[in-house]
Amino acid sequence: MRTNFEEKTYEGYFNTELDKRTEIFFPLGQVQEGNLGFDASAFSTNSSLWRMFGYPFGIFPLFIGFELREIADEMEKFLGRVIMNIPRMKANLLFQYKKPEFITRATGKEWIHWNQPYFRYDIYKEQQELLMHIDSTLGAKILILYASPAIQDVNELVDIKVRGELIENSNFSKAAELNLHHRNTYIKAGTYSIACSDPERMDNLDLLKLLSGINGESNSNNYGKENNRQFIISFCKQIESMISEDRYFSNSFKQLNSSLEGLRKFELFYSFLMMINFRQLTGTQWLIKLNDKSKYDKM
User: Taking the model in full, what pTM does it have?
Assistant: First the structure.
């Protein structure tokens, strides 16, 4: 039986709650795309168009246009100011959101492990291979998690969202622990899950406790000596390199990024836009864990 809510709805509610309850920075993407101030741009000298919007249009055009590179330059400055005024970044997180099925019949392939109704989501081979490549390359520099709700109905989802308890009603598993499996199953949040096809028990992961325990000084990475701008650019370059070499996603990723080539010199702006393409292509949300808000990064 399919759960009757959209994966994007769960993702949006989850991100909002995570933002409120943890020291998380949402890079430019699904949550921050509004920072650009526009969804599309064009240039027109059509007099009828301008008159329609109430602008006079004589012999010489009223609007001569604005170089998009100048907009990119302003965005580079704007984003630099934004990340300067938040705490020092100390860990990267990638979330893979999953909408589960709710299996209610004994004919379900995994019923034998639970003997009661259970939730199930698929682990896609190509997606998992990319996540594992990132995990094996970056190691302790990154945390990659699958997040899936233990919820059947959209009304239940909204009620839990209003109460601010969506994190407690979600199942979390590290991507590395699900490697070589094609499905993960669970009966409710806060308990263990069983990954299949060769059944393997996965202990419950307490997300809030895990995030609160992340300590920048204990992470075995070299980001601690870098400021936020360098942190973002360095990480995004690594992600770009890995997905560009991926046998499944590389061609599509290069096509999506082809329109960004002229923006490469705006390193911070380019990094954010490139990661938007990464998210749209792979369905993986990029988040950053921050240090205590009282400790601001001086760039």
Answer: 0.80
